[in-house]
Amino acid sequence: MTVGLALCIREPHREMPLHKPAFSWTLQGFPPVFKRYLLVLALFTLGNSSNMFLLLRAREMGLAESQVPLLWALASGMAMLFSTPLSALSDRLGRTRLIVGGWAVYGLFYLLLGLNGQNLWLLWPLFAFYGLFMAATEGAEKALVADLAPKELLGTAYGWFNLTAGVMLLPASMLFGWLWQSVAVEAAFAFSAGCALAAALLLKFWVMRPQS
Fold this sequence. Notes:
Blueprint lengths: L1 H6 L24 H15 L5 H9 L7 H26 L1 H21 L7 H26 L5 H29 L2 H23 L5
Helix pairs in contact: 2-7, 2-8, 4-5, 4-6, 5-6, 5-8, 7-8
């Protein structure tokens, strides 16, 4: 049924460009603000390790195995419920404000989860909190790409966005796991929180700084 409905959609007519810009590994043609955004995105993603560590932390704290899937279902449900309204909110408040707020929530979530060693009841509001982070940032981060990149290079811009985030995911999880095993669980969560909060500040005051 979904495929049938998709076939009924009529795409608007678009003029094809006479000359397609060549792909550049040096980000030639992109404004400095977009390049700064990619750097800050890389910093945030370095602290954005696998979500499995969050569930492992909950299990380590003593949460019953049967409740671990329910905990993640809570986060996913919050993300599903608030994704559309928060994405619409970014059109009114601005992408940057929503992303900065979402990254700050992420940093606070990691700090509280890392420092919380006994209060199992706190896991439920914390993971609901985390669902709000996902709802607030996933769409806004991609929408900001379209705001910052030239229209003729939009496809390449999204390629760079996904490449930057994808490349940093593996070292993020490896570093988090190493800190957890070799230093302390609190150090791992503090590192991720530090990356998120630093990225939020840089996005606000460095990436989007007024042009002189």
